[in-house]
Amino acid sequence: MTRATTARSRDRSSTWRLFAVLFREEWRLHTRLFGGWRFALFPLVIAVLAVGATVALQATGTADGTIVTGLHVLALGFGLYSGTAGFAGSDMLENVFGRLSLVLSTSTTLPLSRRRLLGVFLLKDALFYAIAFVLPMALSNAALVGLSATTPLAVATLWLSLSLVFAAGMALTVAMIAVRTRGVPTWAISGAVVLGLGGALATGSTESIWAVFVPIEGSVGNALGLVAGTVLVSVGSLALYDPTYGRPSRTASDRFARLSDALPASADGAGGALVSKTLLDLARSSGGVWKPFVSAGILLALVAALVGVVETITGIVPAPGIFFGGVLGLTAFTTYNWLTQFDSLEAYLAYPVSIADVFRAKRTAFVLVGAPTVAVPYLAAVLWFEATLVDAVVGAVLLAGYALYYYGLTVYIAGFDPNEFLFDAVRFSLFTLGVGVALVPTLVVGFVVVPPTGTVAVALGVAGVVFGAVGLVLSSRAGPRWEERSRVGE
Amino acid sequence: MAVIQVGGLRKSYGDVIAVDGMEFAVERGELYGFLGPNGAGKTTTIRALTGQLRPDRGTVRVLETDPAAEPIETRRRVGILPEQQSPPSFLTPREYLEFVGDVRDIEPERVAAQTDAWADRLGFESKLDTLHTDLSRGQQQKVMITQAFLHEPDVVFIDEPLANLDPLVQEQVKRFLVSYAAGDNAVFVSTHNIDVAEDICTRVGIVADGRIVTERSLEDGDDGSLLEVFLDRVTGADVRDAPSLDGLESELEV
Q: Are A305 and A211 within one domain?
């Protein structure tokens, strides 16, 4: 055996060992964070939700193709998000990779290439999530094709298709992070994405792009093209990625006092200081104040695309005000996530403020940031889809009420860690149930009664107000609830 | 009268008992060293003393407040420098200290004066407008030390005061802590570093298995090194039996 062959063999073996160690670390990280059985149950929860939703959608007459497309939209969105929700930036990259992924950070102390380590890390992530989350989603196909000898093959095919789209989503996000490490500013990356999406819409090429992102329904050539594209983008991103990238030290003029003074009277004193800190953290972290808008924009684009697909297949266009009002309220989750991303509850315990004070301040910040975040895409949706006045007004009430409700639900269940609770089976189930109780009936009405009648409009308006009140109560109780848990030492 | 009074303190996390039977008192003018190995219960005790944790049982009084019943009032009166690194914050040190001033209800003029004085003392004047997240750990520690003393509290709790500081600043901070305690205040320092404790503390409590195993005044003259006492009381071992690295190099040679 030559020396070169021995070196190659040793490289392969160490890469495999690295992969195994990273995989084990990922598993232990999740089981330690959420408890073994709570995390182990999570795929089961996903499977139950996916199969249940498929059965329910079939019962309401939704075409199989629409359901399959919807699953691919979810897989793509999850893939984009799994690349660390990351085009917003290096802060997130450092926080997630540096703090949590101990093995990944060993490239600073061991003779391991950071680029190679990152490549193996991402490969591990793709496989881990493909098994833990995408596979349970693919079980929906069992409900679509029915139980027979070919069911396992049908599930496996959908799994492969969804995994490809998931990996493509991850690759796109990683590409944006890699570009970022070459000093390209976030606004330029965001601009390129917007231009790309706008160009696709303007040239009418959305359908052909769509065909690529639903490989199970396209040709083998399309699927192979997606695989090749994903591999190319991934390899290119790793080549482009600059492991030595270091952000230059940033300075800022004193904005704290001016911002505190400009806040509403209800947020004066310690409350005003807590709100100001949250807003400045949001504005100065990578991606700036635009992060929540981008998250809302992604949701808007995904839902708008889904509406288009549904219309193509069934000929039904939902009431846009009701539909988008209900769905866009979900941005409460992403907005709150951004408001707590660079924060830690423990850090506030050095000051004479209660945890309830901190949660109150987060709610004020949420209203200040969340209102324009949802208003802009909502207005765009009702204008684009030409909602009637009644529909638009009812949708606006739903949007405000449901956003507050989803916010209350999130802070009550997840406290200060909205991102992490996505992987906790119990909390995730509770959150999903809570969202479903409000959203599912609303969407059904939005599809069935177009445009909304007077009675339906009043009923939905009342629902918006009631759910908003529930959200207010939940968010008020979140502070004392998490304060108690913190002081007990949980 | 003691400004910190702890009696029969117990705190457990599930089946794990972190602190049990903790007893001690700290008077004004003392720089009290809380010395112990990892997992001895030091951080849990500080968290109970500052109202961050509610004890299972026992009594705790800090500046005539009960931290378990009135945590905000306790934290208003004391200064706290936590061991845990602060999370990335996008405020500058100047803004961060304004934030602390607001939550502690200090007049802005006083905050500005204190900020300038501390920046000059610890040498971070040139970093006052740099984002906190972009500062080195040492610079971040300087800012955190400043926030703990910003309101000139009568009692200050400090977890590892000299972490990440260069030797020059370490000396400045040590001298400051000694003078601050001497000014009729109390400084409670939790540390692993025996040399630091020996250097600056007026009295130390050695903690092991969740309680004080011995207390020792360092003002009464030398009757044996603190290291010897520490090893004896914490591990029961004689310092002369401590593992030596001598000869390790030759043993490692193949």
A: no
